[in-house]
Amino acid sequence: MRPDRGHHGRLTAPERLDQLLDPGTAETIGPVPALHDPLGFADSRPHAERVERARADTGPHEAVPCAAGTVEGQPCVAAV
Fold first, then answer.
1. Which of 25, 45, 76, 79 would give a disulfide with 70, using CB separation of 3.0 to 4.6 Å?
2. Mean pLDDT over residues 15-41, rounded?
3. Where are the transmembrane segments (predicted)?
4. Is residue 6 within 8 Å of residue 13, measured between CB atoms?
């Protein structure tokens, strides 16, 4: 919530991690390599092509960015 406006605002994942974790403690946990089409998905376009297109359109390679850090000095992992 943005106190200056009294309503919720949109945050990026890095902005949210900055809010949650103690300053200077966030260490990004890299994305886990995805299996190539683990379900054998069949469609009009190959699954790998759809995944690459989605990544090109959205940027991140993971759906839930994660970071290790501390909150009030206590170690934690945050998924945002």
1. 25
2. 85
3. none
4. no
